[in-house]
Amino acid sequence: MYLQSDGKKNNNSSLTFKRKIFNDPVYGFITIPDNIVFEIIEHPYFQRLRRIKQTALTHLVYPGALHTRFHHAIGAMHLMTQAINALRMKGKEITDKEAEAATIAILLHDIGHGPYSHTLEKSIIFETSHEDLSEIFMARLNEIFSGKLSLAIEIFNDTYKKKFLHQLISSQLDVDRLDYLKRDSFFTGVYEGIVSTDRIIEMLDVVDDELVVEAKGIYSIEKFIIARRLMFWQVYLHKTVLASEYMLMKALKRAKILCENGENLFTTPIFKLFLKNNFTKNDFLNDKTLLDKFSQLDDYDIFTSLKVWCNHPDIILSELSKSLVYRRLFKIELQNEKFSDEYLQTIKMQTSKKFSIKDDEIEYFVFSDITSNYAYDPHGGKIKILFKDGKILDIAEASDQLNISVLSKPVTKYFICYPKTIKFAF
């Protein structure tokens, strides 16, 4: 993805463009709608997203999955522009200011993501979600751009009077999901995730300030829900991806403990700050400089440290780091029922013996958890289908081809991870 322009630099060294275009591998040419959007994209806070992979460690399973949060944000912005145009064509009133604000809100919806996205969300900062940090970033950018983001923040926080604009950003059928399904499918090569974004967007409408889908688009929505289910099990919750992400979290936890115990552990300077401290949302709100420091942290800080930790004398940190750097990932087993305590203890005993580690340290090499997949969660907001007679039904009721109500129930699986070198008879 690169930028083309036909603009020139003025005396203030700022760029003024008549035409701003990204060449995106998924959608082709994407036009930047106005100058404020371009200026936000050019800001270092947003440029940081180029250095954070969209799907974290998924590239260890699907080598092409190296696209970034930057790609996704630009793609979601493009779909927002399409959605606004489609709704305007149907007579829905969306002012230029509202269109600009909704575009900015979706552009910045993921700006709070840290290194490796969701994987380290609870390892680097605490009691703070990436949504919290996105709000803090947006508030700071609003100061920088003299209040020009105020309406975007209202829409993002769902405090603006036109609720359907927020639904385009965050709902069961938002442009965020439409882009990441199509984009992640493209870069992983998992074609089951392909959805017809053009068709879905053209079928959008608004009734009583709520986003709805025209009934003739129902099959595209069914495909969208199925695609989500397949992408979660084949990509986002793929067992090897799960194993690698948990291993990275364990490596971070070990590094943090070593730092707390006085170890002068190698890291990049900015990474060390977050390893040594347990920052929360209040810290970001009370110390404005902390956000600038967080904005310097990205995937490269983490991976650079892992490479050096491969040779660290601590066997736990070095083994975990080598396993990630050289892709010697742990074995993972998934099943529908909880693993027996006897089975877990057998694995732990063999692992403890092989690596000569203490009982209270075995959690780094043998760990278990559960994972759930919601293809469609009506409790988080419904996808409403609009029929010609004006009747509106939830997709689970309206669908006559697939039992969507079944897909609205979470599927939970139990898993256990441990080194592949552990061999035992059970």
Explain the overall architecture.
By secondary structure, this protein is an alpha+beta fold. Among the domains are: 3-108 and 149-237 and 377-409, Hypothetical protein af1432; 330-374 and 410-426, Growth Hormone, Chain: A. It contains 19 helices and 12 strands. The protein has helices spanning 35-42, 44-47, 69-89, 96-107, 130-144, 150-156, 163-169, 175-188, 197-202, 218-236, 239-260, 269-276, 281-286, 288-294, 299-309, 315-325, 341-355, 395-398, 404-407; strands at residues 3-5, 8-9, 15-16, 20-24, 28-31, 204-207, 210-214, 331-335, 367-373, 384-386, 392-394, 411-418. The strands form 4 sheets. Strands 6-7-10-11 form a 4-stranded mixed sheet. Helix 4 crosses helix 6, helix 8 (175-188) crosses helix 10 and helix 15 packs across helix 16. The longest helix is centred in the middle third of the chain and has 22 residues, at 239-260. It is globular, with a radius of gyration of 23 Å. It starts with a strand and ends in an 8-residue tail after the last strand. The relative contact order is 0.10. Residues 2-15 have low confidence and may be disordered.
The number of distinct β-strands equals 12
Low-confidence stretches: 2-15
Q: Give me the CATH architecture of the domain at 3-108 and 149-237 and 377-409, please.
A: Orthogonal Bundle
The dominant shape is globular
Give the N-to-C terminal Cα separation: 51 Å
Q: SS-based structural class? A: alpha+beta
Q: Report the CATH superfamily of the domain at 3-108 and 149-237 and 377-409.
A: Hypothetical protein af1432
CATH class of the domain at 3-108 and 149-237 and 377-409: Mainly Alpha
Largest sheet: 4 strands, mixed
Quote the beta fraction: 5-15%
What's the alpha carbon Rg, rounded to whole Å? 23 Å
- The number of helical segments is 19
Overall pLDDT score: 91
CATH topology of the domain at 3-108 and 149-237 and 377-409: Hypothetical protein af1432
Instruction: Specify the helix fraction band.
Output: 40-55%
